Amino acid sequence: MDMSRYRELFLSETREHLNQMGRLLVALEQEPSARETIDALFREAHSVKGMAASMGYERTAALAHHLEDMLDGFRRGGGMPDGTIDQLLAGLDLLEGLLEDLQADRQERDIAAFLAAPAEAVTPIAVATGNPDEGDLELLEVIEIEDAGQRETVSEAPALTAVTLPPPPVSTVFQVTVILAEDATAPAARGLLILRELERAGEIINATPTKETLRQGGGCPRVQAWLRTAVPKPRLEESLRAIADVDKVLFVDDRRTDGSRRGGEAGRSVRVRTDLLDLVVNLTGELLTRRFMLQRAATERDWAELDAALEQTTRLIDELHHQALQARLVPLENVAGRLPRMVRDLARKTGKQVEFRMTGGGVGLDRLILEELSDPLVHLLRNAVDHGIEAGKPGEVSVAARREKDQVLIEISDNGRGMDPQELRQKAVARGILAPEQAALLSDREALMLVCVPGFSTAREVTDTSGRGVGMDVVKSAVEKLGGTLDIQSVVGSGTCFQLRLPLSMAIIRILLVSCGGHPLAIPLTRVQRTLELPSGEVRSVGHRHFFQLDEEEVELVALDSLLGLVGGAAADTLCVVLIELPGRLVGLQVDSLLGQRDAFVKNLGFPLDRLPGMSGATVQGNGSVLFIIDPHPLLEGQSAVSLSRSKETFDALS
Prior knowledge:
Elements: H1 7-30, H2 35-55, H3 58-77, H4 84-103, H5 112-116, E1 142-147, E2 150-155, E3 172-180, H6 187-201, E4 202-208, H7 211-215, E5 222-229, H8 233-241, E6 246-253, H9 258-267, H10 274-300, H11 303-328, E7 329-331, H12 333-336, H13 339-350, E8 354-359, E9 364-366, H14 367-387, E10 395-404, E11 407-414, H15 421-430, H16 436-441, H17 444-448, H18 472-481, E12 485-491, E13 495-503, E14 508-516, E15 519-524, E16 528-535, E17 540-542, E18 545-550, E19 553-559, H19 560-564, E20 574-582, E21 585-591, E22 593-601, E23 615-620, E24 626-630, H20 632-639, H21 648-654
Parallel strand pairs: 8-10, 19-21
Antiparallel strand pairs: 1-2, 3-5, 3-6, 4-5, 7-9, 10-11, 11-13, 12-13, 14-15, 14-22, 16-20, 17-18, 18-19, 20-21, 23-24
Helix pairs in contact: 1-2, 1-4, 1-13, 2-3, 3-4, 10-11, 13-14, 14-18
């Protein structure tokens, strides 16, 4: 019997079992005598063994059977001996490795050494750091090259942070361009390090320059390579930027593989309740009936019946849209299941006492959003444990999620040392990121957002976990790419809270239609706080900036046509303004006119349009024309006079 058709289902279900085992093992470490937890672990291992045996994956089944026997012995003995949790975690890591082998169509890795090793000889793999041996957490490989007649030793950058969740099912191909700083030391050596890092991430299809050229000490202002990998781009970029003298990392997708990417997308699966499927089928049947009614009414020119049928069809489409989105929703705990294990490993490595809590794991998000959310969650928790929680004090890290209308709010908080806004201002000035005048204008909330500036770090020293100034900028970019926002709240001595507001879905969203420079554009409604009409006489100018008073707050007014480089229309007596909320402040976005609201099916933009700041997608209108969807956040943040990325020279010029 051909079992290959069930392969994706097996991989999906086994990952769920392994995630649950990870959560249970962390809980069991806190309470080793908990019989219910041991029983639950036994059932999970038994399920994995049975499924693997049915699929013919012998080594996976044998390892699961070995863990099952261990747990059965502990059930009979009534407790867990010392060191057993480490052994079980090592077995869990090995199971995940076997699953990766199966996913990549490789032969299952050897498990004989683990099965034969005594309990005290087994050490869990440090999944949180990506290193195989906790006793050597900063393993560095030395590359010696000859450059201009001199032998130079360069320590290689740390390895890619290991995936704390299973990697994407299908590898993707894209081009990576790594540009070195003009004053880079030993550029050929840096080029070799970059190629070695790319090899760790996947398969290099071709590269310019080649290793041979670099070993001869040739010039290397940049390294360009086509790479096949399952590692997400944000994680790959973080690892590459950790190499000294790397200035920029750019990615270009392989448009030739659109078909294969669609095939990979089709291979993914989401579990859907049968009652929900039945409801979708019923709605589809009713739509077919309404179609015949519309056809008959149009043929007979019965306008009353046509209007009634259109109204009924609209209601059915709205309901079908709602139920289709429900089918795509996946609980947050599907990506958060590995977080307790990651926090536990980081706490042990740093010697800190950290307790992990999670609430709202059942809150659902669109599967695509959930997959992209795993990296930001990992970054935030790593930062919280590494330089949020203080050594020698009991620490707590929590993840809380809840629904707020058509959005999901996720809060990642800790009770650590917190961040001082004034200290952040001083660091930004000292590093040349802001001028002193700029820093003085920042509110406390804006000062906290400085940690999202590339290269900015609050860590007092660089570790293999954090401190290189990469991470928070990746988090912010990833959240905004998902159509969400990031906000930071912190109290010195009491801890920090990162708030992620995300839409439920990226596929179908509510948009506000506006006219700007003679072109219709759309803004996601989740970005809009409100709209208003403003008499032009209420706008006052300060230098090149414009402001108006709204209640008790002074709001800056920015013209959207200016942001987009469009030709503005004639000045009007009444201005149409869209209020956008940025962290800590409001900004008024001036448009030509407001055209209403509607639901839109969002299409992703291809290269090179996807490289334009503020372009988040497009949708097709009823007349067949393309309507571009604008994300105002990156545009407004780049234009603000207190923008975190604006140079001191620009600030002086505006003054």
